[in-house]
Fold each of these.
Amino acid sequence: MLTMNEDLEGAIKEYLKLLDEEAYFEAHEAMEEAWHPLRLKKHPLANLTKGFINAAIGFEHIKRDSKNAHKKAKRVMESYDRYIDLCKEGINHYTLFKEAKEKIETLKEKHSEVFD
């Protein structure tokens, strides 16, 4: 059985791969599986992980271009923005979280018409 640490590491790696494939809903799902045990144990990385989950959902709204997609994307991105400062040196899996942060920030720039 994998430890919570190994589950989180695997989830972040899968999240990064899925972001590259623009499979945002699936990226959200990958991180959500790791988030549930973090949340239940009130782990310090639970909120940061939730922020990344919501960031992926924001881009899924844009990808689907559904009614009010931009408004929905901005709303869920607020969770990412609120917790991203928790991504700092010294946390478990910092390098992977930093890479995810860079990918999200690049996507936000790509969709600046939504997030400006």
Amino acid sequence: MQLRRQTPSPRLISLVSMIDVLLIMLVFFMVTSTYLNLDMIPVTRSASEGAAPDQTAGPTPIMIRLGADGLPYIHGKSLTYDALSTKLAALLTDTPVMILPSLHADTQSLVTLMDVATTAGVRTLRIVQVAAP
């Protein structure tokens, strides 16, 4: 009687763990990456830089500063949200609005200000952030 050893079957390489690692890496890089919005501050050219002098510029944007107290300021004067809503509704809807939030303003005040502006009929709304020194 002759004993014969069984030949071991070739081991299968499982790709499941490699796929898991790649998905974890994908999620990590998606969460930690920074998205840069280059349209945050509009850039205009002056006539000396090559812009046509007869070209009419759009309406002047309204700058609303959101203070640390959560109140909106226009031209240095504090407004209530009701007064701001009536002021924005009286303007043309094509007038862009730029919001400059304070570094100490909370997010809820910013969301409330954006809601008031869109309810008043503002179509173009931009948030401008000044970098801290």
Amino acid sequence: MPSEQTAFFDTNVLLYLLSKDQSKADRAEELLADGGVVSVQVLNEFVSVANRKLAMKWNEIKDCLEPLRIILRVQPLTIDTHDQALAIAERYNVSFYDALIVAAAKLSGCTRLYSEDLQHGQVFEKSLTVHNPFKA
């Protein structure tokens, strides 16, 4: 059973590991050092941005993913994730892709969601709180 302190990481936090903004890169590294959870969706989005926007080569992307997949537990995408995301998107009026992140975090037992994309301090389903780790 995951610890109630377990954090879930949105894609943007992982991408800051590759940032030229050293303070954000350091903050992301500090948070990830404690471990946590990501979903297959987060890994997929990381690959897409790294390839498309950052023009990284496939071997470079794989080299970045390898340590992440070791230190972070990966939550699979299932039909249950999909169904919960539909309900979350409707209830909280968030995009379906953000709702998938929230659903995966909830299903993995996390209480903290690190993200810049969702509203800092927002609470989902009375137990998952969004934290923007880069907020001043």
